[in-house]
């Protein structure tokens, strides 16, 4: 593979678990910085109950304030028909619909069973398509559940097949609590790739709780995944998943792919600058490595050798 698409999720997943409540203005600045770096797909917010996720309470205000440059697509996460209605009114380009692989986690996240969430997703995919929106269905906890532990592979296969049958444009597999290893990625992606239509894109959403997300990202693209979620600075987490930490850091992936000659279209230096800015806004050190380590070789050596 000579290129991979990185979908930036820091404005949504990156901020939803933070104690610091970002202002609408700061969220818009974060997204504008992401756009200047060259990112073309951004999950900008979620249209969910503001009482449960207060960090996303200003979803409509954020959408109204965003620039609309050509070629940039904004995604919003939704859980139900009300969320979809809000997303349509806010003029997102695509919606991300969530199904969770375990019943216990699904009940805490959405108040229903996994099978009920798949049925709901089918209706949401249809409604979104009628409204002219692209759709992704993300299967949360595909690689493990914080409450039930290991999820039997047969159950994962059944859920993947049922979700694919709902007909989204894109299927995403999420390592919500960061437990996967490359073998798990290869195994589940292989099944999804065999079952899904050739026109359906495959995407991975990886958390770096146990520092396996960079290795898992490489395993994913080698297995045929074309889109990877990432979050500037490694921000992120799930309010309903105990001990889950942030997503794989965007700048860490950019370093890996730049060294491997894999194109992303995203500027590394601008992304690292945004990491520093985001650290300042959050008032803490973020887990991504590249802000402190820097690229290699250092720029002054690279220039001397050019």
Any chance you could write out the topology, listing elements then pairs?
Blueprint: E1 5-8, H1 10-16, H2 24-36, E2 41-47, H3 59-65, E3 73-78, H4 81-90, E4 94-100, H5 103-110, H6 114-130, E5 134-140, H7 153-165, E6 170-175, H8 182-195, E7 201-206, H9 213-222, E8 227-230, H10 250-260, H11 268-282, H12 290-293, H13 299-305
Helix pairs in contact: 2-11, 3-4, 6-7, 7-8, 8-9, 10-11
Shape: globular
Q: Give average pLDDT, whole number.
A: 95
* Total of helices: 13
CATH domain topology: TIM Barrel
> How helix-rich are the residues, as a percent range?
40-55%
Structural class: alpha/beta
Helices and strands, in order, run as EHHEHEHEHHEHEHEHEHHHH
Q: What is the C-alpha radius of gyration, as a whole number of Å?
A: 18 Å
Largest sheet: 8 strands, parallel, barrel
Count of all domains: 1
The CATH class is identified as Alpha Beta
- Please report which band the strand proportion falls in: under 5%, 5-15%, 15-25%, 25-35%, 35-45% or over 45%: 15-25%
Biggest sheet, strands in spatial order?
1-2-3-4-5-6-7-8
Number of strands: 8
Q: Can you say what the CATH homologous superfamily is? A: Aldolase class I
The appropriate CATH architecture is Alpha-Beta Barrel
- The end-to-end distance, rounded to whole angstroms, is 26 Å
Low-confidence stretches: none
